[in-house]
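Quick one: structure for this chain?
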Amino acid sequence: MAQNHSFSIKSGILVLMAGLLVGMTYAKSGERQLSTKTLRSMARAYMAFGKYDKAHELAAQALRQAQTQTTEIGELALCLIDMGTVCSYEGLLAEARQRLQEGVELQKQALLEDHPYVAQTLRMISDVCRRQDDLEQAETVLTQAIGIMLNHCDLQSREMAPFILESANLQFEKGQLDQACSNYRAALDIYEQQYGPEHLMTANVLDRMAKLYAAQKDLGQADQAMSKSISIKTRIFGRYHPQLIDGWLTMARLCKQQGQTERCEYYLAKTTETAAQSRNAITLALVYEQVNQIRRLDMVAAAAL
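Got it. Here's what it folds into:
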């Protein structure tokens, strides 16, 4: 308990320091132009806490500067990759894919084609391709990324955990549920051993496992995994945060499937309230679309009878 409390305090301090840094930097911006590295650091600080609109603005500014000034190829690559990362978080998948692909080509020139950083970017491209339902390209790119990583580390190392997780995600989308479950468990073991059971990455794996259990009609296991994930993320981000929205929607869907109407509405209310506070029209529209889909589950089930 003391360790969890310490982690919460550290998270709060990090938020405060990031806010102070951004404020101080903006205050000085009238005196001199911010460097692309500073802009990217600010964008990453906003990304870390789900402020994607602010992150997008800063990452775009960094990229514009890098493209119009004499910029080292490695820095331009990072500007493109950070822009692609923000777009990926926002669901702007076509732009994310383009920026990441442009970035990795420059990254290969700045580093070696066999560099682990190149593999990480390829993994991110694979994630975007998968989310675009381009599963064949997602598998091709991920295979390249894993091949690079295995030249530098063992399969059971913590560096491999994100690649194992992405392999599981791809297998899940392809309907290979048993293989996906095995890889989710492998990734979860690595994250729990390396970072602990209360880490954000552990929660992210539990998210995916909950969805897999739901696909296997094991609603009890799905509920347990998702509840644990939400508990971890609540301790990290607080009770109301955009990073919790996807988990609440998943829980609402599980509750609906289990006939727990009041519990379902509880999670839907938290979802819509938090989405409304973000004042992001795209996010709000996507959330309401999913909320309406969940509320229609009873009608869909009845129509199938």
